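Limitations

Structures in this collection are predictions, not experimental determinations, and the ligand pose is part of the prediction. Treat each record accordingly. The example that follows, with fe (ii) ion as the small molecule, is included so readers can see exactly what is and is not provided: the inputs are given verbatim, and the output is the predicted complex.
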Amino acid sequence: MSGAETSSLDDLRGEVERLRGALAAREAQAAEKEDQLQRYAADLRETFKEERARAQQLRDSYFATVRALTNAVEARDAYTGKHAERVAAYALEIGSAIGQQWAGHPEIEFGFLLHDIGKVAVPDSILHKPEPLTPHERDLIQQHPVTGWEIVRQVDFLGAARDVVRHHHERWDGDGYPDGLKGEDIPLSARVFAVADTLDALTTTRPYRAASPISEARKLIQEARGTQFDPTVVDAFANMPDELFEGIRAEIS
Ligand SMILES: [Fe+2]
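Predicted complex:
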């Protein structure tokens, strides 16, 4: 081998060594980057987990707050017992029968639970009066949806709940209160709630009358189809089994 050939072979070896070194450095860099990315991913997973736990805590606090307010309203009325909780469960079931998955939307459930919060402004002597109400007393009671709405309207986390509080006494034919909304102008959650509320009111003992059986409540609700109540909601309710409502009643009483 000539001297020139030896030197070019050495150059080649040198170049291969240099390339190997460069490759090893790149691989080390890549491994370091991969480690870094994995650390970032782990950090992100941890942050996400913490955020989810915080969101859950916040939701739990909202529920606890709403339940406390609900209990404050119901504590005054020995007759209705857990009316709000029961009626919320009925309304969630009826909603689901018309394709509304409200169980995953706490705002709607908050509205069901807080619907009568405005009754805090109605004196006990009127709220618990067994005799028929005077027109003035009736006016006072009929202010409770607006009073309730005034109480909750600044509470952002209640969102759509505020619609139920304000509109749960509207009627399909427009003769309800407080705004005389008619048909589909009434929020759907309030239309569903109206049926659930009537079902619970009729099947619970009140100061002025005994509880009716569910069959009697069904008859009265059917008679008010298209006048007081949304026909679609009444039809869905009519197809739901008694056992469903009896089960809720047995569980929440
Ligand atoms: Fe009400």
